[in-house]
Amino acid sequence: MPLAVELEGVSFGYRPGQRVLEDVRLRLGEGEFVAVAGPNGGGKTTLVRVVLGLERPTEGKAFLFGEAAHRFSRRRVLGYLAQRSQLAGDAPATVREVVSAGRLAAGGLLGPLRRRDRELVSEAVQRVGLHDVADVPLRTLSGGMQQRAFIAKALAGEPSLLVLDEPTTGVDAESQESLAALLDRLHSELGVTILYVSHEFGAVERFVQRLVLVRRTIVFDGPPGRLPGVWHDPSHAHARQ
Amino acid sequence: MLDSEFMRLALGAGAIVGVLAPAVGFFLVQRRQSLIGDGIGHVAFAGVAAGILLDLPPVLTALVAAVAGGVAIELLRSRGGTAGDQALALVFYTGIALGVVLVSAAGALDVDLFQYLFGSILTITGTDLAVVAVLGAVGLATVGLLYRALAGVSIDEEGARVAGVPIGALNVTLAALAAVTVALSMRVVGILLVAALMVLPVSAAGRVARSMRSTLLLSMAVGLGSALVGLTVAYYADAPPGGTIVLVAAAGYVAALVVSPVLGRR
């Protein structure tokens, strides 16, 4: 299987002597749906930044679709849902305006969107089930619906790899389940590779093919069923079973 | 009022700045950089002082200093590892300190300086208006051309960066636009009030508008209205034009605050 992401013995620190990540080895095949979990401060967000080429490993190598991640030339195939604190959830933008921002890299920076771009935006809004509120201001919607809008924004760019960093923060348990089901459907329908990074993985556990636990280094990498029972999240009913 | 040439020129310059300032300020407000206009204004003060000292046109030297200051704030924030508010403070205080030293060296702590600090729209000449019109048109055209990109980056800068959007170039362009706006607005409302015209109309529009596009257009309308109404009130009440324009914009915000619950807005 061709690889979307490959980390070979990656170590990283923000200053000399610091090790936020240590000897991380991770392979993510094209079309896989993988969850990366771990405690807060365990290096998950740093791992995301290295994977996306925003940080260069101190040691080891990071590849995206076979190219060095920090010099990756086809960035428009990357869809990224940043942590909520980095997103303008209180901007006066409508859902459609948020999703349209996903066509910036592919559709060009100047002037209005072309018809094909507008069609892709409408398609992405439809896919996440927000067509009824497409022209409603984002700030009037619930946290779960706002996250759907930002997922649609990432989808509008027609990504081959979709990376979500803590997508369920501030979202109630029911919306988390619904978000996870949406990602499963998008994964099946579009065949997009999904890297889901969160400190809680209960909602996606039954959908992902692999679960990777990170605590500076990778301490578990396998199907969720092989994870010791005490590590499962009891707040999600299916995980308790 | 319109029989007086100085009022016709003032209304022309006020209208252009009234539209341009919120158009540029809109993106700064969305990025929580509302005070950047203030920071650039203080660097422009140093530029005015340098112009007086070197016997060069102060508006020109202020424009150069403002662009340099705006770009410096952006570069310090994005590449220098300095937090946004600290980058702003560094440029802000350096600008005002440099201005004071230069003005003192030129022995120009007088009425001429005050026209830049508090505005002097009633002394605008035909040539001044032409400069404001040309640079204002360039600024508005740039906003129109880059609207989608600047709005997209305001919504999700990190997502755009990951997807390969040239964030650095867009941010520097916005900083330069803000600097040009400050330099042009200097004669209208003065360095000390320039940021108000970039922020208050946007805040007012944000209370009642239902989309980014309508917020931008409404804020430009509020800015235009504030400039024209403010100048008219100043003319008949014999009040300082810069301060009156800003007070009208502030009244616009209060009105939006009162009206927004009636319209079902937040």
Keywords for this entry:
heterodimer, A: alpha/beta, Rossmann fold, 7 helices, globular, B: 266 residues, mainly alpha, ABC transporter involved in vitamin B12 uptake, BtuC
Overview of this structure, please?
The complex is a heterodimer of chains A (241) and B (266). With 241 residues, chain A is α/β, with parallel strands linked by helices. Chain A has a domain at 3-88 and 161-240: P-loop containing nucleotide triphosphate hydrolases (Rossmann fold). Helix content of chain A is 28%, strand content 24%. Chain A is built from seven helices and ten strands. In chain A, strand 1 and strand 2 (21-29) form a beta hairpin. Chain A is globular. Chain B has a single domain (5-194), classed as ABC transporter involved in vitamin B12 uptake, BtuC (Orthogonal Bundle). Chain B has eleven helices and no strands. In chain B, helix 9 (194-208) packs across helix 10.
Brief sketch in words of this structure:
Chain A is an alpha/beta fold.
Helix content of chain B: over 70%
- Which structural category do the helix and sheet elements of chain A fall into? alpha/beta
Q: CATH homologous superfamily name of the domain at 3-88 and 161-240 in chain A? A: P-loop containing nucleotide triphosphate hydrolases
Main β sheet profile of chain A: 6 strands, mixed
> Can you write the helix and strand succession of chain A as a string?
EEEHEEEHHHHEHEEEH
Q: How many strands, what sense, and barrel or not for the largest sheet of chain B?
A: none
How confident overall, as mean pLDDT of chain B? 87
Output the CATH topology of chain B: ABC transporter involved in vitamin B12 uptake, BtuC
Structural classification of chain B? mainly alpha
Strand segment tally of chain B = 0
Q: Which segments of chain B are poorly predicted (pLDDT under 50) over 5 or more consecutive residues?
A: none
Q: Which range does the strand content of chain A fall in?
A: 15-25%
Mean pLDDT of chain A: 86
CATH class of the domain at 3-88 and 161-240 in chain A: Alpha Beta
